[in-house]
């Protein structure tokens, strides 16, 4: 039997962006287009080779397992040539080295540069220096737009509609680019977003993000359809923000009892990497009835295929 082929949705959609730096740069129709592409590639057995002949360079100044591999796989599935460069953070002199690297890479004329960097704004700076597209794969504590897109795709595939859903993002909000991008995207899609965490891990000004802020899990999770847990980002903490990991789990870690505060049937998400027994119990993380964590990784590849397709075939390409 011939493999099923799908045609890419709304091929005439006027996608005008050259780069993906933050979800706030996209309009709601752009987001709907990207999510439709993500859903398409999630179901396509033989994806169209729309990046055939393109070169994608992964430039990761910070460690990554799933994001880097996910971009690599996504680009290869669309027929692109992919190079992955892992740049050790320790010896990197920010600014100068970044621009030098950009100039070298630009001479090789990649069509897409996927950048992860520990300095907020590094991908935006690079986007001004190169001729191809730049995708922000996480910059400092600023943004992680493809994580938010893949989380939204996961929820769309599971729940259908995101508008009107109550979603709690819990834990270390202060150091999390995932939280920032998810707040931006989920509120744009009409969800009611809550932040739940100890005051030391809630950034000043979070109440101006269009969300409600809660300190304790019981009130924060009440009536929630989705509970998104975040890792304690110890590498970004300049001091002690929590008394101990054990105490943190007791008050803020997600276990069966605390999940009981949410709506019956509530779903659990986590961008990974997980610290089991710190922000989430294994019992919850591994329960296929409630956990979307594996689906998030799966949707990560499909969503990145959708984004690569949109950038490479769009009118700014
Ligand atoms: C996140 C990141 O790097 O910001 N991970 C990821 O991309 N899946 C979250 C984290 O590191 O905790």
Describe this structure as you would to a colleague:
The protein is 36% helix and 14% strand. The strands form two sheets. Strands 7-6-5-8-9 form a five-stranded parallel sheet. A four-stranded parallel sheet has the order 2-1-3-4. Helix 2 links the parallel strand 1 and strand 2. The chain starts with 27 loop residues before the first helix and ends with a helix.
Give a quick set of tags describing it.
317 residues, alpha/beta, 5-stranded parallel sheet, 4-stranded parallel sheet, 11 helices, 36% helix, 14% strand, binds N-carbamoyl-L-aspartate
Secondary structure layout plus pairing:
Layout: H1 28-43, E1 55-60, H2 66-77, E2 81-86, H3 96-107, E3 112-117, H4 122-127, E4 133-139, H5 145-159, E5 166-170, H6 177-188, E6 192-196, E7 212-214, H7 217-221, E8 226-229, H8 245-252, H9 256-259, E9 267-269, H10 282-285, H11 293-313
Parallel strand pairs: 1-2, 1-3, 3-4, 5-6, 5-8, 6-7, 8-9
Helix pairs in contact: 1-5, 1-11, 2-11, 5-6, 5-11
Bound molecules: N-carbamoyl-L-aspartate (NCD).
Brief synopsis:
The protein has 317 residues and is an alpha/beta fold. The protein is built from eleven helices and nine strands.
N-C termini distance: 36 Å
Strand content: 5-15%
Count the beta strands: 9
Low-confidence stretches: none
Strands ordered across the widest β-sheet = 7-6-5-8-9
**SSE order, as H and E?**
HEHEHEHEHEHEEHEHHEHH
* Classification by helices and strands: alpha/beta
Assign an overall shape. Answer: globular
Oligomeric state: single chain
Bound molecules: N-carbamoyl-L-aspartate
Radius of gyration: 19 Å
């Amino acid at each position: 039997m011939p493999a099923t082929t799908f045609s890419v949705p709304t091929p005439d959609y006027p996608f005008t962006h050259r780069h993906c730096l933050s979800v706030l740069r996209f309009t709601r129709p752009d987001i709907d287009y990207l999510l439709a592409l993500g859903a398409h590639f999630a179901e396509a057995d033989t994806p169209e080779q729309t990046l055939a002949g393109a070169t994608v360079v992964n430039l990761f100044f910070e460690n990554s397992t799933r994001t880097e591999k996910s971009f690599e796989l996504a680009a290869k599935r669309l027929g692109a040539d992919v190079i992955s460069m892992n740049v050790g953070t320790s010896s990197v002199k920010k600014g100068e080295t970044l621009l030098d690297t950009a100039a070298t890479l630009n001479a090789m004329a990649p069509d897409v540069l996927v950048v992860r960097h520990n300095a907020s704004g590094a991908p935006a700076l690079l986007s001004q220096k190169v001729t191809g597209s730049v995708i922000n794969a996480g910059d400092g504590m600023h943004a992680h737009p493809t994580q938010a897109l893949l989380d939204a795709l996961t929820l769309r595939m599971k729940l259908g509609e995101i508008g009107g859903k109550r979603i709690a993002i819990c834990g270390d909000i202060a150091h999390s680019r995932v939280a920032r991008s998810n707040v931006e995207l989920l509120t744009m899609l009409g969800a009611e977003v809550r932040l739940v965490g100890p005051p030391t891990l809630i950034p000043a000004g979070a109440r101006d993000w269009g969300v409600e802020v809660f300190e304790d899990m019981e009130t924060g999770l009440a009536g929630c359809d989705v509970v998104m847990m975040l890792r304690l980002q110890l590498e970004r903490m300049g001091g002690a923000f929590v008394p101990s990991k054990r105490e943190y789990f007791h008050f803020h870690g997600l276990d069966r009892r605390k999940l009981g505060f949410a709506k019956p049937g509530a779903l659990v998400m986590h961008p990974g990497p997980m610290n089991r027994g710190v922000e989430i119990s294994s019992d919850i993380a591994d329960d296929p009835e409630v956990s979307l964590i594996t689906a998030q990784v799966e949707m990560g590849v499909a969503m990145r295929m959708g984004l690569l397709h949109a950038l490479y075939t769009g009118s700014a390409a």
